[in-house]
Design a protein that fits this description.
mainly beta, 11 strands, about 120 residues, about 55% strand
Length: about 120
C-alpha cells in the first residue's frame, strides 16, 4: 500500500517560514511519472488545493492566496515532495496534505495530514 507521510509542520509566528516534507514509499512504479499536489483544510472550511506540480518538479498551479509565498518542489531520488512556506499568515493555519499521481480533478494518493499553526 502506498504511503505518504508528511513532516515539518508545527507552530510559527506570522511572518515566519516552514518547510513541509512528504516522504513516499511502497509506490510500485516510477515516482517521477506522477504529478504532485498539496491541499490544506482550515478549521471550519473545506479542503482546498493550494499547489500542484509535474513529475519533474515544475510548479503548475498556486492558489492565489499562496502565490509568491509558497513553493512546491520534489526530490525524485529521495521520493519526497516539499512545500516551502514563507511569509506565513494567521490565515495559513490549517492541516496540510500532500498528494501524488494526478487523476482528472484529484489525486490517487494522499497523506494523513500535518498541522500548521500560525500565531499573530
Amino acid at each position: 500500500q502506498v504511503q505518504l507521510v508528511e513532516s515539518g509542520g508545527g507552530s510559527v509566528q506570522a511572518g515566519g517560514s516552514l518547510k513541509l516534507s512528504c516522504a513516499v514509499s511502497r509506490l510500485g512504479f516510477s515516482f517521477a511519472i506522477c504529478g504532485m499536489g498539496w491541499y490544506r483544510q482550515a478549521p471550519g472550511k473545506e479542503r482546498e488545493l493550494i499547489s500542484t506540480g509535474s513529475g519533474d518538479g515544475l510548479p503548475t498551479y498556486y492558489e492565489n492566496s499562496v502565490k509568491g509565498r509558497f513553493t512546491i518542489s520534489r526530490d525524485n531520488a529521495k521520493k519526497t515532495l516539499y512545500l516551502q512556506m514563507n511569509s506565513l499568515k494567521t490565515e495559513d493555519t490549517a492541516v496540510y496534505y500532500c498528494a501524488l499521481c494526478r487523476t482528472g480533478e484529484g489525486f490517487s494518493y494522499r497523506g494523513q495530514g500535518i498541522q500548521v499553526f500560525v500565531s499573530s
